[in-house]
Amino acid sequence: MGRGKLRIYLGAAPGVGKTYAMLSEAHRRSERGTDCVVAFVEHHGRSRTETLLHGLEQVPRRELEHRGAVFTELDLDAVLARAPRVALVDELAHTNVPGSRNAKRWQDVEELLAAGIDVISTVNIQHLESLGDVVESITGVRQQETVPDEVVRRADQIELVDMSPQALRRRMAHGNIYQPDKVDAALSNYFRPGNLTALRELALLWVADRVDEYLQQYRSEHRVSRIWGSRERIVVGLTGGPEGRTLIRRAARLAEKGAGGEVLAVYIARSDGLTSASPKELAVQRTLVEDLGGTFHHVLGDDIPAALLDFARGSNATQIVLGSSRRKTWQYVFGPGVGATVARESGPDLDVHIVTHEEVAKGRGLPVATGARLGRSRIAWGWLTGLGGPVVLTLLLNTVHLGLANDVLFYLALTVAAALLGGLYPALASAAVGSLLLNWFFTPPVNRITIADPRNILALAIFVGVALSVASVVDVAARRTHQAARLRAESEILSFLAGDVLRGETSLETLLERVRETFGMESAALLEREGDVAPWTCAGRAGTGPPVERPEDADVDMPVGDHMALALTGRVLPAEDRRVLAAFAAQAAVVLDRRRLREEADRARTLAEGNRIRTALLAAVSHDLRTPLAGIKAAVTSLRSDDVAWSEEDQAELLEGIEEGADRLDHLVGNLLDMSRLQTGTVTPLIREIDVDEVVPMALGGVPEGSVELDVPETLPMVAVDAGLLERAMANLIENAVKYSPAGRTVLVAASALADRVEVRVVDRGPGVPDDAKERIFEPFQRHGDAPRGAGVGLGLAVARGFAEAMAGTLNAEDTPGGGLTMVLTLRAAGTPAGASPVTTAERQAAR
Description:
Layout: E1 6-11, H1 18-31, E2 36-40, H2 47-53, E3 57-58, E4 62-66, E5 69-73, H3 76-82, E6 86-89, H4 105-114, E7 118-124, H5 132-139, H6 149-153, E8 157-161, H7 165-173, H8 180-188, H9 193-221, E9 233-238, H10 244-257, E10 262-270, H11 279-291, E11 295-301, H12 304-314, E12 319-323, H13 338-345, E13 351-355, H14 376-399, H15 404-422, H16 424-442, H17 454-503, H18 508-518, E14 523-528, E15 537-543, E16 556-559, E17 564-569, H19 578-640, H20 648-680, E18 688-690, H21 692-695, E19 708-711, E20 719-721, H22 723-740, E21 747-754, E22 757-763, H23 796-806, E23 810-815, E24 821-828, H24 841-847
Parallel strand pairs: 1-7, 1-8, 2-3, 2-6, 6-7, 9-10, 9-12, 10-11, 12-13, 19-21
Antiparallel strand pairs: 4-5, 14-15, 14-17, 16-17, 18-20, 21-22, 22-24, 23-24
Helix pairs in contact: 1-2, 10-11, 12-13, 14-15, 14-16, 15-16, 15-17, 16-17, 17-19, 18-19, 19-20, 20-23, 22-23
């Protein structure tokens, strides 16, 4: 059985109707006779969604117990045993309850797909892993539940469920998303119009990019060369002149007028030697186009208009922006120019904009190479001049008799002209035809092949020799100029390549994409293997052509050492291009090595951090754990001694010492275990709605009675937290505050509500902490100032902050007015979405 197909309904926010659309699709399929079951769908108390569940077969959920509570999860084994054609699995990014087979629900979906079951699922844009930073900058809170982008990208169908922010807020206000008592808080926080608009834009752009990928893949597979103007892509043709900045800015303004506009600036390195661009100016223009949100491309091409058009059509561009020619009027005798040629050959699908600028008709600012590899038109004109020119000249000289010496000079001039236009062979033809015509018509005896005067024989010989010499010099100059121009073009490409690598801006995939577009190939891949007989594996790939499993299967392969090769598909490259390709291949190997070295460095950094923690653990074991053990051992030994008759008071004191030592050991070991869980990322909070006044008193068990004053009103809103984690965090904060408070001064624990948050403040009157150390005290194994060794291993605050962040809360340190330190624990009120913005310090101060 083949792999199942995945269909995902993607939304920008809760409540847009993803689950409703999924269930409606399930009803449509069931009506068509498709075997469709509900594997897991959460209706969140929404009546309309719950109504759609009627009439669909539901696989019973699996019950799991966690921390004294029972939860229901997707029963993966039951769904696999049922083996339906289609399974509905809601909330793709959901984290499963500990004890489930997989940690994430998307992993359950992968198993269903592998079993050949089609899956329909839902996910919100804020749960995509790559958008975590962006969503955090919008909402202020990092999403705890995420799904890898690749899982969603691999979906066979992605359907956007869209709704305007105003319509979504109306739906919220009508009670169709949350319960009525939670509506006001949601509308004023997560469901603010700005938040919803930004998230909606993220969803639309992400789906648009995926659609663009599918379109490019389709065009490549079906070899569609015609431009489809699905979105505005504007190609800017750069020459390296100062007018390029004007063109880039004009193209950016054009792109802004259309939705999803894209700017692609391209410089074509000329191998015909016309103009050498300034690397400094190109670097400035590259920076400009990247600052404006576009991309810069460096392409090698002999025919500039053709290369530009090929690049535009390959990029599915809709417009080309070019500058008015800098050539002077008389230079147009050599051809219409790049702009006119591109406009003529662009066809009906490409709009060409010719933009005026300050450099128009001022001539080229850089020297022009006069010789180049001769094009077809010049060679044709050279042959016409070499063969037809002597005939026309003979007719003219027969009407005007100027003497043999002048006639020879005219024919010599014509031969030089043929050499300049067409190179060696047209010049040889001109010399041969000219010498025969000179002999026949102008050398006595005329109209005969023979030559009577030996001096005329010498003149004709000199004529032929000079003609051959001139033709040879012109041909050699053209070849050398072509070689110099090509080397210059190659050096420009390599300089850009080296600059990218030195700046560390080029990843392996970006470099391969640069190779592909530089040589106009369909795909580029870096292949490697471990040994001579080992199979090849792909280390990186770019392009949409067919995958290459061996270098021999590619159109072009460039070895890199013994066990690595750069493989390209699309066309066979000329031998002269392989020199640049070899440099690209060597650089690709360097980039791959650098990436692996970076990964090794990251692993080494992780190991070093682990070694640091282990060293600290050893130090803790050597003293902080051994001290209470020694005290317990001494007390037990004393009690068991038969040599001393202990009084009841002495026995009670020794037992109290044993109890205190055991409590201290329990506390230290608990913190060590908690820190280990945080370091390994295995802390999975069980979020429930609870009252703060139920948890905080339970955290006072480890401090002396009367050392803490509580001010926790019963009227506070409930908070969405893990009760066990909150109790541990509060216990560490309170114990730390009591430890540093002066004798006779109580620690104040006060709680208050602020917007959609609840703040718990632990206030002490101790020595306080300087501003530069307020963040450092939350690092593991940190003791502030001259705290004695017996004060603990320095994990309490680190564990407390880790637990707070695991519950989507925050923990910060502030100065206590009048002296001391205040720990501010901010918790999310019940009913507030996890993505709601946190309360800032300024808001807290304003509320107070």
